[in-house]
Amino acid sequence: MKYRRLGSTDLDVSVIGIGTWQFGGEWGKDFTQMEVDQILDKGREVGINLLDTAECYGDHLSESFIGDYLSRNNREDWIVATKFGHHFIDNFERTRQWKADQVLKQLDHSLKSLKTDYIDLYQAHSCSDEEFNNDDLWTMLDKQVQAGKIRNLGISLQNEASTYQTKTAKEVNARAIQLIYNRLQREPEDEVLPIAEKDNLGVLARVPLASGYLSGKYKPGATFEKSDVRSKHDQADTSKKLKLVEEIARNEVPEGVPMATWALAWCLKHPAVSTVIPGCKNPDQVVLNAQAADLVSTNHPQHKQ
Q1: Where, by residue number, does the polypeptide cross the bilayer (predicted)?
Q2: Above pLDDT 70, what percent of the chain?
């Protein structure tokens, strides 16, 4: 495994993390604590130290799985990132909760669910620019940093990453951003990633396998079952993506390298990117994800010995 300093924080994160949205049940599978334990045990074994979750992955369900694990293992071995701004309700719907007092309640609930005294990276979760402009919220969060409940603040940007929030991150004491970035979705390269690089913001790249399209499993014409979130994607767009993936596999992926491994390492080549946080369903996928670190150069500006 390789490690990078996360922006101006004091956190050295593994270049491969574990995204845990799936633990909330929205990926079409209900996880057990034993299955989560096996995934996190394997992550620790291969040198992964970063977990990314959120209060609304289930009703603090993903956090609770992680918290149960942390209570039986060394909390200090892990960098835990979670998020705020939503409240989970039935059928995977969420309400938006951005008032300072609401977020303070979310923070305390997250700490309780995670069975920890502090959160390493507490991220605003897909807020609009209007929701972001909330002095009361950021003042309250700064007080929680001073109290030791939060080590660092971050911003998990919406699917269309906000240039404004990225430019303003330092003003609200946010030291990292999270965004969608992969070989099929390169828009952040235009403005957002250069700002992050200039302002020394850590960057967590989510959806690095483009919702599995870059896994190498699917050929043009592939269809997805109704339980698969990709079945809801626009069919024409899916067809276009699969054709592009076929071209990438033919022209860019080295012979003998699994496409998924290559795709994770591809994200990590950008000088602004600190870490990627792919999801995983089982320990074998954790191992395959971790192998991408072998393709990552030690010449990256954030590389840690």
Answers
A1: none
A2: 94
